[in-house]
Amino acid sequence: PLTPMTPVTPVNSASESSGIVPQLQNIVSTVNLACKLDLKNIALHARNAEYNPKRFAAVIMRIREPRTTALIFSSGKMVCTGAKSEEQSRLAARKYARVVQKLGFPAKFLDFKIQNMVGSCDVRFPIRLEGLVLTHQHYEPELFPGLIYRMVKPRIVLLIFVSGKVVLTG
Amino acid sequence: MAYQLYRNTTLGNSLQESLDELIQSQQITPQLALQVLLQFDKAINLALAQRVRNRVNFRGSLNTYRFCDNVWTFVLNDVEFREVTELVKVDKVKIVACDGKNTGSNTAE
């Protein structure tokens, strides 16, 4: 039995030769438009926008290409979610910024940053999760059917399922 | 106060036009016209809530949506309105929808 001092990372060496490439499913990014925004004004004039200040203090706006959702705050800060690549996330964020600009606000595009990326893949064979539980993992099948592996280097969280499907995030 | 949502309908607009004519010819005051419209609001809201029983289904593709001040506004394209008896197809329809739960009430949920 392996001691807690020897974390095993079989996933790394296996994926280099297996040819399995995780597919990007979601990218979350943020950007600062650097000007105060009148959210009600934006909600009334932009298309595909929702604003319910009682529930959430931001305008929720969507565009079809790249298919994404943005949360726009009165501070001028914005979150962009749903893109399938870093470039698409940046492009989408620029489109939202342009919408805001066209409504008359002096929007800039400062400090664009990718905050999180989510990928998924299939190793194509069943995994015995009970055998994987060492350090860096949490596995409580009653609570959640996936094993939560918090890899240290790189700092990634993997959700590993008996089906062989793996979700990577962080 | 009942929703003024129904003023911009064929019925509501006809009423407003008639009232405007009466104001022009000085047969009624603008204040009276306002009172008539407020009564129209109450009457139409009540009638739709209590006297309409039939159900219509519709399906189309969503062009745009908006939610602000608790009012949903949709624009749909290529819509089919279906009632048991008949089918109506339109290229474009705009739907403005207010919360049906607390009509005229100001209390927060």
UniProtKB/TrEMBL annotation, chain A:
Pfam families, A to Z: TBP
Assigned protein family: Belongs to the TBP family.
Matching PANTHER family: TATA-BOX BINDING PROTEIN (PTHR10126)
Localization per Swiss-Prot or TrEMBL: Nucleus
Keyword Ribosomal protein among record annotations: no
Domain of life from the UniProt record: Eukaryota
GO cellular component, one term: nucleus
Keyword Nucleus: yes
Name of the protein in its database record: TATA-box-binding protein
Keywords: DNA-binding, Nucleus, Transcription
Entry's Gene Ontology BP terms: DNA-templated transcription initiation
GO molecular function list: DNA binding
UniProtKB/TrEMBL annotation, chain B:
Gene: Gtf2a2
Pfam families xrefs: TFIIA_gamma_C (PF02751), TFIIA_gamma_N (PF02268)
Swiss-Prot/TrEMBL GO biological process terms: transcription initiation at RNA polymerase II promoter
Alphabetical keyword list: Nucleus, Transcription, Transcription regulation
Purpose: TFIIA is a component of the transcription machinery of RNA polymerase II and plays an important role in transcriptional activation. TFIIA in a complex with TBP mediates transcriptional activity.
Protein name in the entry: Transcription initiation factor IIA subunit 2
Family recorded in the similarity comment: Belongs to the TFIIA subunit 2 family.
Segments forming domain Transcription initiation factor IIA gamma subunit C-terminal: 59-100
